[in-house]
Amino acid sequence: MTNVVEKVYEQVVERNRGEAEFHQAVREVLESLEPVISKHPHYAEAGLLERIVEPERQIMFRVPWVDDNGQVQVNRGFRVEFNSALGPYKGGLRFHPSVNVGIIKFLGFEQIFKNALTNQAIGGGKGGSDFDPHGKSDLEVMRFCQSFMTELSRHIGPSTDVPAGDIGVGGREIGYMFGQYKRLKNSYDAGVLTGKGLAWGGSLVRTEATGYGTVLFAQSMLATKGQSLEGKRVTVSGAGNVAIYAIEKAQALGATCITFSDSSGYVVDEAGVDLELLKQVKEVERGRVADYVERRPGARLVTEGRVWDVPCDVALPCATQNELDGNNAATLLRQGCGVVAEGANMPSTPEAIEAFQQAGILYAPGKASNAGGVATSALEMEQNASRTRWDFETAEAKLTDIMTDIHDSCVVTAEEYGRPGDYVLGANAAGFTRVADVMLAHGIV
Ligand code: GLU
Q1: In this structure, are 243 and 358 located in the same domain?
Q2: Quick check: CB of 203 below 6 Å from ligand 1?
Q3: Which atom of ligand 1 has the smallest separation from the CA of 91?
Q4: Which DSSP category does 68 fall into?
């Protein structure tokens, strides 16, 4: 790293001790900004790097609730309002036992650039809790969500901060949080949360958007080589919202998706994933991937190694951060994988990214390829503000245009800095300059 960038990074490490994922996300962005800073030194001179790595506001709070046995439980809640240069803070809420301030900060930091890439008027933020919805009753989830929103409601609003879902937060949780917000504020502010149900302000395509967008991005990358997803073997990790709809779109475009996974292992289904069965198991029954295998002849559950051991043409990591390491990357490359598009946030470790880039394969970082989810959240905000509802085709056409636009700005920006095909540089530089120019216009605030 150059001196300027190194100094900023060191200060981040010093000031945010023990927050490994946050350091990792900052390092990746700062490293790829080096050519930007040497070409446009005024950004560094205006202290923009130091400002952009410091959240505008961080909120941590107690979330007490009562479980079904009458016991008091205490979780920790977070909202990191990272950057509001381009619009209200925007980003999901993650409910998972691994959640801590470093994870929320890495996610919030990534969100700034991702949201900028969508070209919508949304700033970056993220929140969540170390609450684990798995194995909780519906009423426990509701009591938790109400307690969480009782505090969060003081900090958010349709023009201030607009949370949505992430891991562990789907339509059910958004519903309970919206109900509590409405009650506390005595106001039907549909635009305060996105990912809402279709009957109460939600947008068609929001559920599908992250997965669909990831696949559309992979398709655009393949198109630069005169190829498509037709006939490709695709491996997918995860079995949540992102994975399910990535599989749906990839199969619709003629690919065969042969895997998905959860924390108990991964499933290989050489005939191609039976999407209706997967949706029944995960969305309706909230079950485990093993339940799929029991009902699907020919599918097998593998509990050793990772899904990346399965040979493929295209890999779509759609589970969680750092799920694909240097060894996994080497295996993928050795077995002929030529495309990696991230549906999750930061799923590839720095070693894996380096391996993909050295091999010269098509590699899309999550902040570009998974931006379809938050982009469609912005479309939901737009419909809420104008009290309209678009049909599925209209919303999907807008999502497709946005993903094409993100892809093309990554390509153009990478070329501008003399590194054609480098989607990491393209995404980071394009996202950064959009935010940085507006921060300059707003003065030192
Ligand atoms: N959590 C999603 C993401 O990582 C979506 C955020 C949103 O829709 O606000 O981008």
Answers
A1: yes
A2: no
A3: 9
A4: T
Helix (H) or strand (E) holding 162: strand 161-165
The pLDDT confidence band at residue 2, using thresholds 50, 70 and 90, is confident
Write the pLDDT tens digit of every residue in 47-91. 999 999 999 999 999 999 999 999 999 999 999 999 999 999 999
284: exposed, middle or buried (Cβ count in 10 Å: 0-12, 13-18, 19+): exposed
* DSSP codes joined into one string, 257-304: E-EEEETTEEEE-TT---HHHHHIIIIIS---HHHHHHHSTT-EEE-S
Among 114, 126, 232, 249, the active-site one is 126
CATH code, domain carrying 359: 3.40.50.720
Look-up: residue for tokens 């339509």?
171
Report if residue 144 sits inside a domain: yes
Same domain, 220 and 159: no
For residues 167 and 217, membership in a common domain is answered with: no
- Closest C-alpha residue for ligand 1 atom 8: 374
Task: With H, G, I as helix, E, B as strand and everything else as coil, classify residue 36.
Answer: helix
Average pLDDT over residues 353-371: 98
125 Cα–ligand 1 center, Å: 9
Q: Is residue 203 part of a domain?
A: no
**Both 122 and 239 in a single domain?**
no
Could you read off the pLDDT of 114-158 as tens digits, one per residue? Answer: 999 999 999 999 999 999 999 999 999 999 999 999 999 999 999
Q: What's the 373 CA to ligand 1 centre distance in angstroms?
A: 6
Pairing of strands 300-302, 265-268: antiparallel
Segment 173-201, tens digit of pLDDT: 999 999 999 999 999 999 999 999 999 99
300, 334, 369 - which closes a domain? 369
Q: Is 373 in the pocket of ligand 1 (CB under 6 A)?
A: yes
Q: How remote is the CA of residue 360 from the centroid of ligand 1, in Å? A: 29
Kindly tell me if the per-residue pLDDT of 1 is higher than 80. Answer: no
Pocket probe mutation, ligand 1, options 78, 156, 161, 166, max atoms within 8 Å of Cβ: 166
126 counts as catalytic: yes
Identify whether residues 105 and 229 lie together within a single domain.
Answer: no
Give the position, in ligand 1's atom list, of the atom nearest the Cα of 162: 9
**The domain containing residue 128 runs over which residues?**
55-188
CATH of the domain at 89: 3.40.50.10860
Closest ligand 1 atom, CA of 165?
A: 1
The count of residues in the chain is 445
Q: Number of structural domains, the chain?
A: 2
Same domain? For 262 and 305 the reply is yes
Determine whether the shortest distance from the Cβ of 374 to ligand 1 is under 6 A: yes
Q: Are 234 and 181 within one domain?
A: no
Whole-structure pTM over 0.70, yes or no? yes
Report the candidate in 249, 260, 261, 248 with the shortest Cα–Cα distance to residue 217.
249
pLDDT score, position 83: 98
pLDDT in tens, 243-253: 999 999 999 99
Average pLDDT on 19-31 reads: 98
Domain assignment present for residue 434? The answer is: no
